[in-house]
Structure to design on (768 residues):
């Protein structure tokens, strides 16, 4: 038993944090900004300076100016999405590109985990719930495998920070990431782009849109991405491929739009995804003991494993968005969605060869036991239905009211394999969960004066889960065949928000908001190595968030500023104790979690030819629960938390720790310089950079399992002609070739995984 004295951690921001926040506000006319949907306005008349068009968003389920919305939000437009994804990246390329947003995954491309203002969920189970809701074309995607749907042919992305439950979907105590596809058009148009780069990275994307007769229009979009296996497996007796880390992914979307009536509109959406490739590649003994440095001699191009490694995922879905103008004053919306997924992901979790070798070398690694496992989703379906009535009064009062229904049925397989016996199956546990929820919600907006507007929202939610888990085949040193173990939860909740917007001047709006968020109970049943086997349950969590800020147009609309200060507290926060010496995944509740910080979004034309953007955030989080202990690593890491021994098991106290995967600092900057040429042609240079500070990988703190600060940059040099119809460019992603550990596996040895490599390539795009 060891005890370490530790002074209580205070959550108040340090003086340099406050100074920076004030300084950023005072220099709001500086030359930085976050990319926005309206970042590319129409060309000004000759002799006039370029200005920024009003930024229009749908953060409150209707189109309005972003500066009038009392919510901290950031948008990403089509051009920036195109640039960030040019190297074949998946949805994780948005991580750090927006204030307070982090995205990571221990499944690679298939299973992204989102964190906003530090609130997220490290749970890797396929029925895990997240406090960040992802809404794609008005359909909430609840299962984490659905949340990785590829980013292609989008109109924009909106990040809404803080609880959004009175208007959106399901679990939204942290916020919403909202994707909006490009819609069918009445004029024939389209584009196609193809790129090729390092490691055979190929990226194709295209769309065709136009009319189908007098009353219908359609848009068909598709993408295809692949990368060669580029990591050599140095194990000559490997049962998996001699090369790893490649992927082959395709996705398509078809939209049909009916606009033949003045009072009825319809949009139908059919979409699908197929992914085949390498699962997340784990690397044994990645960290130098006693530090978070990568081990001496580490070679990112090599690994030595003997377990199998692959990943397969298929998803498809359909939706119908209907609207009726019941009168000049009322509109009724119906949004129906269906989603399904089928997956299997298998990996060598110990990251080594028969407990013998380091990545690419022959030094003994000291792996205490082999670990090879798979997670599958053989059966899944999600049905959602929303009805919403919206007023369109010309007076000071307007409102929205609606009903939401959610029904998900899911089966999860957890499989274990005996690596040293040829990889035969040696353990199988299965979870089944049926989740039904419904909600009634409403919001009011009242213009007290021409310059002061109040908003308020209320939501009642009832959530019910029926869960069972069984051990179908016993694993070595694991649970015997047993079950089913059944758990049922049935809870209801009332969440709310109230906010106000004050127009201080013609160019500056001030706002404040208080909101309550809710996340229903979660159930976990990974039973293979839990002796005795028993599901764990995390009770419902509740968040109270306080936020105030300003939104302003500056320099005669040549610049735009958004600034927010926030503070939140979470009661009963759901946390996941992953792995550790117990080799178990267990849900727990923390008595309280506090967080606070600030966010900045700025954009500006420095000159008519130079657009520069900047975003920044500071997030300080703290778990407050003196009675909460978790099992630390089982692979020789250096734990820095106080520890106790209970029933022969060493546990670490996490009271005072920050949340996992919650960087204090996030910065991003872009700059686009254009050189106009004759006949509407243009030469341009575009660079983008994202930085996040260090993060803890787990609830406890250790010297090894802490990710170092990560800085990734991109560069694009291109030429457009025929008034922008054609574009050819050279691009680079992660151009500094930064190699950092971005996650770990802590139950066996010092296993970790790293970020994507540098990709350099060329691209051609044609539009019509």
């Amino acid at each position: 038993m060891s005890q370490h004295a530790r002074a209580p951690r205070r959550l108040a921001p340090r003086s340099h944090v406050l100074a920076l926040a004030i300084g950023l506000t005072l220099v709001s006319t500086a030359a930085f900004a976050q990319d926005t949907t309206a970042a590319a306005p129409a060309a000004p008349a000759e002799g006039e300076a370029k200005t920024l068009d009003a930024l229009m968003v749908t953060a409150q389920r209707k189109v309005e100016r972003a500066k009038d919305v009392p919510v901290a939000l950031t948008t990403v437009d089509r051009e920036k999405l195109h640039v960030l994804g040019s190297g074949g990246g998946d949805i994780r390329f948005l991580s750090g590109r927006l204030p307070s947003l982090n995205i990571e995954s221990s499944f690679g491309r298939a299973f992204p985990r989102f964190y906003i203002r530090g609130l997220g969920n490290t749970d890797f189970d396929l029925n895990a719930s997240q406090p960040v809701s992802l809404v794609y074309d008005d359909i909430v995607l609840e299962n984490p495998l659905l949340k990785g749907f590829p980013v292609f042919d989008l109109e924009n992305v909106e990040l809404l920070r803080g609880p959004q439950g009175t208007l959106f979907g399901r679990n939204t105590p942290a916020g919403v990431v909202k994707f909006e596809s490009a819609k069918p058009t009445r004029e024939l148009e389209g584009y196609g782009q193809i790129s090729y780069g390092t490691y055979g990275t190929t990226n194709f994307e295209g769309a065709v849109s136009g009319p189908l007769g007098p009353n219908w229009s359609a848009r068909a979009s598709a993408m295809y991405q692949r990368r060669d296996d580029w990591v050599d497996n140095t194990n000559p007796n490997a049962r998996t491929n001699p090369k790893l880390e490649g992927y082959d992914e395709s996705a398509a979307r078809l939209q049909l739009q009916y606009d033949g009536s003045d009072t009825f509109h319809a949009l139908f959406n059919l979409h699908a995804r197929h992914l085949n490739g390498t699962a997340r590649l784990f690397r044994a003994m990645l960290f130098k003991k006693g530090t978070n440095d990568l081990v001496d001699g580490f070679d990112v191009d090599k690994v030595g494993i003997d377990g199998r490694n692959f990943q397969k995922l298929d998803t498809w879905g359909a939706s119908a968005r209907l609207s009726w103008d019941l009168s000049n004053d009322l509109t009724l919306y119906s949004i129906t969605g269906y989603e399904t997924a089928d997956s299997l992901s298998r990996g060598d979790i110990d990251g080594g060869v028969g407990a013998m070798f380091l990545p690419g070398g022959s030094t003994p690694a000291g792996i205490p036991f082999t670990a090879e496992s798979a997670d599958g989703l053989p059966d899944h379906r999600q049905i959602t239905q929303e009805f919403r009535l919206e007023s369109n009064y010309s007076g000071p009062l307007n409102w929205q009211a609606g009903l939401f229904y959610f029904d998900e049925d899911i089966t999860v397989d957890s499989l274990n394999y005996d690596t040293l016996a040829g990889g035969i199956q040696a353990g199988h546990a299965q979870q089944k969960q049926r989740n039904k929820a419904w909600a009634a919600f409403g919001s009011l907006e009242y213009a007290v004066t021409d310059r002061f507007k109040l908003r308020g929202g209320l939501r009642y939610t009832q959530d019910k889960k029926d869960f069972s888990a069984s051990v179908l085949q016993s694993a070595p040193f694991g649970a015997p065949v047993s079950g089913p173990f059944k758990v049922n939860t049935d809870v209801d909740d009332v969440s709310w928000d109230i906010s106000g917007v004050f127009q201080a001047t013609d160019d500056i709006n001030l706002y404040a908001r208080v909101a309550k968020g809710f996340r229903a109970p979660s159930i976990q049943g990974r039973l293979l190595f839990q002796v005795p086997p028993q599901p764990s349950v995390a009770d419902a969590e509740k968040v109270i968030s306080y936020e105030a800020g300003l939104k302003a147009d500056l320099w005669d609309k040549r610049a735009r500023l958004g600034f927010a200060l926030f503070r939140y507290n979470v009661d009963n926060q759901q946390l996941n104790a992953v792995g550790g010496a117990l080799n178990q995944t267990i849900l727990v509740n923390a008595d309280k979690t506090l967080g606070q910080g600030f966010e900045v979004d700025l954009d500006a034309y420095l000159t008519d030819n130079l657009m520069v953007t900047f975003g920044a955030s500071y997030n300080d989080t703290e778990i407050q629960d003196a009675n909460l202990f978790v099992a630390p690593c089982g692979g020789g890491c250096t734990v820095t938390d106080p520890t106790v021994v209970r029933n022969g098991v060493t546990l670490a106290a996490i009271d005072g720790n920050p949340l996992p995967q919650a960087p204090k600092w996030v910065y991003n900057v872009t700059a686009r310089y254009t050189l106009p040429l004759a006949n509407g042609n243009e030469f341009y240079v575009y660079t983008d950079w994202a930085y996040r500070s260090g993060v803890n990988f787990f609830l406890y703190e250790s010297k090894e399992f802490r990710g170092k600060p990560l800085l990734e940059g991109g560069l694009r040099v291109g030429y457009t002609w025929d008034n922008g119809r054609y574009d050819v460019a050279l691009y680079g992603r992660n151009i500094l070739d930064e190699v950092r550990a971005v996650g770990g596996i802590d139950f066996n040895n010092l296993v970790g995984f790293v970020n994507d490599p540098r990709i350099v390539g060329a691209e051609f795009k044609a539009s019509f």
Q: What stands out?
A: The helical segments are 15-26, 78-84. The two ends are 70 Å apart (CA to CA). The chain has a mean pLDDT of 90. The chain has two helices and 43 strands.
